[in-house]
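Annual report, structural modelling task.

Input specification for the pyridoxal-5'-phosphate complex:
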Amino acid sequence: MDLERIRSDFPALSNYTWFQNGGVSITPRPVAEEHIRLMRELLERGPMHIIYPEEEYPRRIRTKDRLGEFFNVEGGDLALMRGVSEGFQTILRGLDWKEGDHVLMTTEEEAALFLPTLHLRDLFGVKVDKIPLVNDLQGQVDAVEELITDRTRLIAFSHVITDSGFRLPCKEICHLARERGILTFVDMAHSAGLYPMDLYEEGCDFAGLLSYKWMYAPYASGALFVRKERLDDIRVTYAGGRAEAWADWVNDKFELKSSAERFEYGPWSWPLIHAWACSMDYLSGIGLDKIWDRTVLLTSRLKSGLTQIPGVTLFTPEAPELSAAVQSFHVAGWEVDDVKTELQSRWNIELKAFKTTYHGLRASCPFFLLEEEVDRLLEAIRTLAGEKG
Ligand SMILES: Cc1ncc(COP(=O)(O)O)c(C=O)c1O
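The model returned the following structure:
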C-alpha cells in the first residue's frame, strides 16, 4: 500500500492527527473532486435529469449498480436513504406491531437504532429488551438466544458498536434469528468499507448503510438493504414519486417498483450519490483486504499500547474478530471532555469523548494513519494518565 500517495489524497490530514473518523470521515481528493465536478456540470449544463435525461438516468443506474456491486448484491436490493435511521424507520413502520410484540437491541445502540426502537415501544406497546455485549463470540450468540421469547419479532443491532467498538458475530446472530423465524436489521455504519462484504452472506434480512464514515464519501447519504425474500413482508408506508414502476394519471392507478427501490420516494442529491459510488472505486482501487489488514495492524498497536498504560481501561475487545476500527478507553482521574480538550490543545489530536451509560474516549483508526501517529496518541495518553496518577 502506497501510504504516502494515499495520505496526499487527504489534504485535511495536515490540519490534525485524525482519530475522529468514526464520527464523519475526511474525504479523499478524487472523491471530493468528483463531487465538485458534478456540481460544476450542474453549473455549466443545468439539471442533468431535466435537460439531458438520456445521460443522467443511465448514469444513475450505473451508480446504483456500483453501490450494489460493492456489497455483492444487485442495485435493486438497495433503497437510497439519508442514513441508517431512515432505513431502520422504513423497516419498523413497514411491519404490523401488536402490543406485547418483542424487539431486541443491544445495550449500547447509537441513536439511529435506539430512538426508533424506544419510539416504537411508546407508540405500540412493544416490549424491548437489551442484549448485553460479551467479549466472546459464542458467548455473544448465547446472550442473544437467552433473551428470545415466542413474541420476539425483530433483532436490531449494530454490527460494530458505535463507542465501545465491539464487533458482533453478525452471521451467527442472523442465523439463529432465522431459525427462530425472527427478522434481523443490522446497522453497518462501522463495518461497511472496512473489508469485503457480501450482504446476503452476512445473513441479515435488512441492513442500514452509510457513505460517510468508513467509505469516505461526503456527508451524507446511505442505503437500506432488503433481502429479496423479505420484500413482501414490509409494507410501503410512504409511497411517493420515485417509488412507482408506473403511474396512470387518467385511471388513477399505479404499481410500486418490484425491488427495494419501492421504499425510495422524493428527490435525492444525485451528485452526492454518484460521489459515494466514486468512493467505492477509490477503496476498491486500494483493496479492501489491504485496508482491513492495515486496520488490524493499527488498532492492535493502539490497543496493546493502551493496556500497558497505568490508569487506562480499554473497553474494546482486543481480538480483531470481535472489534473493528474504533476503540475506546477511559483515563482514571480525568473527565472525558477534558482529555479531549487537552489532546486538541497540547497535541493537536482529534478524537471523540462520549458520555452515554458510561464515559469514555473513542479513537477511530482509518487505514491511512501512520504507526507514529498511533504512538503519538499513546504517548499523549501516557502523559495525561501520569498527571493524575
Ligand atoms: C452505529 C451507528 N449507526 C448509525 C449512525 C448514524 O446514523 P444516521 O446516518 O442515520 O444518523 C452512527 C453515527 O453517526 C453510528 O455510529
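The CA atoms of residues 125 and 273 lie 37 Å apart.
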